[in-house]
What we know:
single chain, 4-stranded antiparallel β-sheet, mainly beta, 8-stranded mixed β-sheet
Amino acid sequence: QVQLVESGGGLVQAGGSLRLSCAASGRIFSINTMGWYRQAPGKQRELVATITSGGSTNYADSVKGRFTISRVNAKNTVYLQMNSLKPEDTGVYYCNVDRLYYSLSAQPLRDYWGQGTQVTVSS
């Protein structure tokens, strides 16, 4: 059983910062791409940022220059540093794994999600 455990969410004033963490645990050989998605009330879930095992990153236009995604492959952990937070950043943030491999030869687990962590930014 693979688990994604998220932490770091909370309440912060506009202009402040938060750092989210997501650690994958269980039977894991490697993970290709990890990312963060968010869902605000009344909106669809949207991509925030992704990062490959090689360190290539992708960001939503709305967070470019403010958020930074990073990972430590040896710990199967991905981080999201969020600076200059705005009220529109409020939502539930979900950790995502694109492909998780149990071994060199096993078929991968595809598109795996964490439970979500609440981020609230006040005006």
